[in-house]
Amino acid sequence: MKKIFILNGSRRKEGNTATFISSITNKLKDCEIEIAHPQDFKVKACEGGEECFLKAGCVEKDDLPLLDEKILSSDLLILASPVYLHYMTGELKMILDKLSWWAHTLRLQGKPVVLLSTCSTNGQDTVIKPLGEIINFMGGNVIATANASMVPDQINNPEWLDSVSEEISSRITKSIIDYPKANIFTEKIFSASRISMLEQVSYFEDNDIKNGELEFWKSSGMLEFESFSEYLVSKYQNKES
Fold first, then answer.
1. Pairing mode of beta strands 76-82, 112-119
2. Coiled-coil intervals in this record (predicted)?
3. Could you read off the pLDDT of 22-75 as tens digits, one per residue?
4. Contact 115/142 with Cβ under 8 angstroms?
5. What gap in Å lies between CA 111 and CA 139, rounded to an integer?
6. pTM higher than 0.85 for the full model?
7. What Å distances lie between residue 31 and 1, 67, 177, CA to CA?
8. Strand order in 31-36's β-sheet?
9. Which candidate, 47, 48, 56, places its Cα nearest to that of 209?
10. Which of 26, 58, 63, 68 could make an SS bond with 41 (beta carbons 3.0 to 4.6 A apart)?
């Protein structure tokens, strides 16, 4: 059974964002679905510093590893947020800040991702666009985005909600039975990041410094491939053959 993990950036478990999510998940069949909210995890604020990048993981002791596991073990990730001051919620941004090393390692490894937002009247672009850019850098493959507003009242419009939810649920169903894929954005990010990592190899080896991000590139095998697509085929398709 395919696993779908949903991180709703709102603390309101029965709010508009939850309603939008449910309209989609109710159409999904034969999937294991888990929905989480910020208050479900004790995640400390990011304090910065290079230790996290050298370790390739946050050095703070909190529930982040649990959240990591839920995201990485899922077959598809849904990120959702209401518009707060023309941006995603602060708690969702804080969680993403804590996962910032993923943006240097394409840690989502082609995982299909759906991005959702809700708003009163406007501002959805200032949530969906930055979320999309973050997910691309993290190596995720965004397969669908959508916003539901109160003016015009889309969230309480059954016809609109059903139409949008049907389209997104259809894309989800198709994506989770396929292999994780690259897109034009992740290909560009992979290419630039790989060049950067190759240039760092001699520096860290000569100075006897262990860099967790570089070690991930080595251990995953990404350094050996010219493109993200070729790497993902080797990782997923060849493993199944």
1. parallel
2. none
3. 999 999 999 999 999 999 998 877 776 666 666 666 767 788 899 999 999 999
4. yes
5. 7
6. yes
7. 6, 19, 11
8. 31-36, 2-8, 76-82, 112-119, 141-149
9. 56
10. 63
